[in-house]
Design brief:
This protein has about 350 residues and is α/β, with parallel strands linked by helices. Helices cover about 55% and strands about 10% of the residues.
Amino acid sequence: MSELALYRKYRPSKFSEVIGQDQVTSVLAESIKHDNLVHAYLFSGPRGTGKTSVARIFAKALGTSDNDLIEIDGASNRGIDEIRALRDAVRTLPFESRYKVYIIDEVHMLTKDAFNALLKTLEEPPAHVIFILATTEQHKVIETIVSRCQSYVFKKPTIEILKKVAKDIAKEEGFTVSDDVADLLAFMGDGSFRDTIGILQKIIGSSADKKIALEEVERITGAPAMRLVYDFILALADGNLDQTLSLIDKGVESSIDFKIFLKLVMREIRLALLLVMAPSLENKIMNEAGEKETDFFNTLKTKPQGKNLAPALREFLDTYLQLSGSYLPQVPLELAVIKILQ
C-alpha cells in the first residue's frame, strides 16, 4: 500500500465531506447554484489543507468530466514554453462538458515570464475555461495575477479536528487509538490532513495488533516520549536545574529531535497556563486531554512554579528559533533552562 493510500481512500468527493473549510465550500456551492461563476480562482493556504481536493470537487460540481479536467504541477511546468502551450490548449472546446477546468498546483513556482504569459490568458479567457490556481505561498504570486482571481484562503485544521480525523479513519480501518495517541498524531501532522493521515498510515502498517499504543507512535515516528516532555516541565516547575539538565541529556542519549521536543514542551506549558489564567477554558482543555495528559496537569498544579511558567514559555519561543542552526541542538535549550532557573 502506498504512503498516501489512506489519504486518497478518504479524500472527500463532495463539498459536504470537506472538513474544516465550511466558509470556502459554502460560498463555492452557492456560486454554482446561482450560476455566479468567474473564470479564475485562487486557493491559498498551508499544505495538506484540501486545496486541490476542493478544486476537484468544484470542477465535478460544475459537471466537468475527467476528460475536461486538466491538472498541472506548477513546480515541474514552470517555464514560459509550458504556459504558451497551455494558452494554445485552452482555445479548444471541451470534449463533453460545459467547462474545461485547469487546476494549476503550486502556481507560485512559475517563472516571471511564465506568470506574464498566464496573465494574458487570465485577462481574456475563453468562455468555456475556468482556472483554479492553488498555492501554499500566495505572497509569491504576482499581484496582477491575484487581482484577476477570486481568492479563497484555506485554514489550518485545529488539533481537535485532526484528532477526530485520525480516530475516525483508524476506526474505519479496524484499529483503535486512545486520545493520547490521536493527540500526538495530530500534533505530528502539524496542521495538515495529508501529513496526519500519512503518519497514521505508517503506524497502521507497522502495528503488531489492532490497538495502537502511544509508545508505538513515539518509536515509529521518532517523536520524543511524552513522559520525557512531562518530566522536563515538572522538573522546571520544581526549580530543579540539575534534574532538568539531566532530562535534556537523556534526550540526547535517545537521539530525539529537539525541535519536536521543544514544540511539545511549549504546547503543554501553554495549555497549563491557560488552565490557570482562563478558567472558562478549563472544561474544553481537560475534555480534550488524554488520561496521561490529565494526570500531568493535575501534578503540575502541586508544583512550586506550576502557575508561573510564562517566563519559561517566552524564553523557549526564542530558543526554538536557534535550534536549527546549532551544531549541538541541545545547547540552546540548556542555556535557556540555566537562564530561567538561575
